[in-house]
Amino acid sequence: MATLTLTHITKRFGRDVVAVKDFSLEVPDREFLVLLGPSGCGKTTTLRMIAGLEEATEGTIEIDGVDVTDLPPRKRDVSMVFQNYAVWPHMTVYDNIAYALKLKRMDKQTISTMVKEAATLTKIDQLLDRFPAQLSGGQQQRVAVARAIAVRPKLFLMDEPLSNLDAKLRAATRTELKAIHAKTEATSVFVTHDQAEAMSLADRIVIMKDGGIIQIGSPDDVYHRSANLFVADFIGTPPTNFMNVELEVENGQCQLAGPHFTCVLSAENAAKIEDHDQRQLVLGVRPESILIVSEDDAVLSAECLVSEPQGSHQIVAIELGDKIVKIIAPAHPVIAPGETVHLTFDQEALAFFDKETGLRI
Amino acid sequence: MTRRKPVNLAKAARTTTFYILVVGVAAAMLLPVYFIVSLSFLSVREAYSYPLPLVPALETHFKLTPGKRGYLVSVYDRIEGAYESVLDTKELQKMSEYMRYQLATPVTIEDLEQQVARLETEDEVYFTRRRNLLANYQTFFGVAGYNAVPALIRSLQICALTIVISLSIGGMAGYAFARYVFKGKDLLKFSVLFVRMYPGVAIALPMIKILANMNFYDRPIGLSLVYSIGNIALTVWITASIFMGIPESLEEAAQVFGASKARAFLRITLPLALPGLAAAAMYAFLGAWNETVAAIILTTFNPTFSVVVFQTVLGSVGQVNLAAAGGMAMALPAVIFTFFIRRYIHQMWGGVTV
Ligand SMILES: Nc1ncnc2c1ncn2[C@@H]1O[C@H](COP(=O)(O)OP(=O)(O)OP(=O)(O)O)[C@@H](O)[C@H]1O
Ligand SMILES: [Mg+2]
To answer: CATH number of the domain that B180 lies in?
Structure first.
């Protein structure tokens, strides 16, 4: 149970590499926070600074209001699941989990109970006598999680703990992690570069790029109200479709004109962008916000390039100029390549971005 | 009729050649060892007989007959299949000594008196006595006695000191090379090998001078310092690659879970590095144990065991069996240590080597 406050954290390696810059963040008690960003954006470095494994070049870190910036890792009362598990190969599963408890000088009986509890929670209670070399990757990962939750930390740090698992196991473990969090209620910081993982786990997502924060928000926020082009592109599969458009105002009516279509805007959308000083905009449309309609209601028509059936739905790709636009359509009727589709936009889900700054309008 | 598999000649030939080779190599390695082991148990007479017996006799068969000068002692020769006369003397003291030292068969003077007495009534007296198989070893430690045992202890001290010095310094340096980035690291790591380029003899004089100045001349600590120089270099290389193979995150995990940096090293990294450290310790032990040239130069009154063996071999030109016993006494501790340390080199956790 803890709050975490990072104030203007910067981390430099040598003179030239700035891994994290001016990172400020407040994590309330019991929150499950996810750091999300592309490879090399400074997620691991941030997490390691919170754990005390890396010194912050500038800024302060507080846990529960206590400044821990200069404390060694063992005095911070955090626990961590490492990207490569880091389970100790010369200790049995039991000893791996018990080690931290032994360091706290708990008595044997208590340790045994706590180890069994953590092992049961992570479903490795049958494996306690084994050595890590005798476990599968997924089981080792559970050991790493069990070891981290057994100490009942104030703060639970996880660095891409699911990255080495196969897709199915990853989805299953994700659910388990969420259940474990619900049970332990430990404040958690979870690092990943997998946006689907972030969406399904997070109370709040911090989207990072080049060492800085781009957006902080709930999964809903970052998905539906992406702060800029980068976020809109990074979140969601398939990603948002972007189209260059020009805003035209004709006898009091706003409309978007692109090379392939013109679209009359709803009153709300018009109000949103009317006052913007630029006429050249980028329109962002989520694949599921492009609707297949009858020819009469269509804003644009195009030939289907390929369609990918997904069972519950199908992904239809069309070509607009040199751009591929992807649409999520109902599974039926099946759309065959070459077939002409008539499309319109869901006005409520349109996003507009400034062409120069990339910021949402 | 059952069909027989056709014999694959090429494959059979290959397999046969392979096994002939293997047996050849094994024989080439084992025969000298066997030779020296068996030689170390032979009596002087056996050691110089031709052909050399493959195994030492367990007992000696004597025949006593009246001789020209007193009593004629004959010994049964296994290879000839007959008794051969070896000594003609009246003095039982001399006879007993001959039997003890040349035939490695202890026979007391009282015993001989009884046998001689039987000659009054019989023409020939036959008797059989047990061989003392360890005679050579007893002689080796007895002859070199004033030296061999303290030298053995001294050698073990030197080995232990060498291991401690080179493992602690070399191990720490290896850890630093593996974990930290600093200027000139590669050059430094390479340059630790330079010290191994100098042959000990070439720099003997300055070494004597320096050790004498430090008051370490002719003392175990002095020799172990000299041996450590070369071993530190080797240990640095062995341990650096071992430490590099142990992910740093294992140590970091321990730190996050409540261990100090030192404790994380002792409890996590050190046990995992044990196989490498054991290998380095073995190198240090064998190097220090076997080294002779520097030991000859750097000791006068307190020689090491290897020096004593060396002197015995040189000093007993007529006694190959004694030299063999010395060689065995020299080899045995090294073999024992190697077998002991082998357990750690093959350290396993959960059936899989890490
Ligand atoms: N010890 C170091 N020395 C120099 N540069 C470093 C060091 N550690 C990290 N960096 C740099 O800092 C930046 C951020 O690294 P970090 O490991 O935090 O990325 P990440 O977001 O965790 O990436 P990934 O998703 O690939 O794990 C990278 O550009 C990396 O090259
Ligand atoms: Mg990382």
So the answer is: 1.10.3720.10
Question: Is position B70 within any domain?
Answer: yes
Q: How far apart are CA A79 and CA A29, in angstroms?
A: 16
Question: From the CA of A156, how many Å to the nearest CA of chain B?
Answer: 11
At residue A228, the 3 state secondary structure works out as strand
Task: Report if residue B252 sits inside a domain.
Answer: yes
The Cα–Cα gap between B225 and A321 comes to 79
Residues B119 and B192 in one domain: no
The parent domain of residue B345 ranges over 141-349
Among B133, B157, B179, the domain-final residue is: B133
- What pTM was estimated for this model as a whole? 0.78
Q: What are phi and psi of A307, to 5 degrees?
A: -130, 140
Q: How far is the CA of B185 from the centre of ligand 2 (A)?
A: 27
User: For residue A37, which atom of ligand 1 is closest to its CA?
Assistant: 21
> Does an H or E element contain A103, and which?
helix A93-103
From start to end of A1-154, where are the E strands? 4-13, 17-27, 32-36, 58-63, 66-67, 78-81
Is the CB of A13 within 6 Å of ligand 1?
Answer: yes
The string of pLDDT tens digits covering residues A315-361 is 999 998 888 999 999 988 889 899 999 999 998 889 999 988 889 98
Instruction: Summarize pLDDT for A9-43 with one digit per residue, the tens.
Output: 999 998 889 999 999 999 999 999 999 999 999 99
pLDDT in tens, B269-307: 999 998 889 989 999 999 999 998 888 888 888 889 888
**Chain B residue whose CA is closest to A130:** B350
Residue B354 within a domain: no
> Does any ligand 1 atom lie closer than 6 A to the CB of residue A161?
no
Structural domain spans, chain A: 4-234, 241-354
| Record: contact B256-A132, CB cut-off 8 A | no
Nearest CA to ligand 1 atom 1: A13
Q: Which helix (H) or strand (E) holds A254?
A: strand A253-257
Q: E strands, A64-160, where?
A: 66-67, 78-81, 155-159
**Per-residue DSSP letters for A304-324?**
EEEEEE-SSEEEEEEEETTEE
Residue nearest to atom 28 of ligand 1 (CA): A40
Which residue of B lies nearest to A90 if distances are taken between CA atoms? B349
CATH 3.40.50.300, applies to A4-234: yes
Query: Taking the domain A241-354, which CATH number applies?
Result: 2.40.50.140
Residues of B with CB under 8 A from a CB of A: 247, 249-250, 252-261, 267-268, 271-272, 349-352, 354
CA distance A75 to chain B (A): 7
ipTM of model over 0.90: no
CB-CB neighbors (< 8 A) of B242 in chain A: none
Query: What backbone phi and psi angles, to 5 degrees, belong to B20?
Result: -60, -45
Is residue B207 a part of any domain in this protein? yes
Residue of A nearest to B263 (CA): A103
Taking an 8 Å cut-off on Cβ atoms, the answer to whether B349 and A82 are in contact is no
Domain count, chain B: 2
Contact A131 B350 (CB under 8 A): yes
Residues B34, B58, single domain; the answer is yes
- Report the separation in Å between the CA atom of A83 and the middle of ligand 2, taken as the mean of its atom positions: 7
Q: Under an 8 A CB cutoff, do B271 and A90 touch?
A: yes
- Strand bridging mode A78-81 / A155-159: parallel
Residues B238/B282, Cβ–Cβ less than 8 Å: no
Neighbours of B1 (CB within 10 A): 3
Long-range contact set of residues B95-99: C-beta below 8 Å, sequence gap at least 24: B95/B71, B98/B73, B99/B60, B99/B62, B99/B73, B99/B129
Q: Which residues of B touch A92 (CB under 8 A)?
A: 350
If one residue of A41, A83, A194 were mutated to test the ligand 1 pocket, choosing by the most ligand atoms within 8 A of its CB, it would be A41
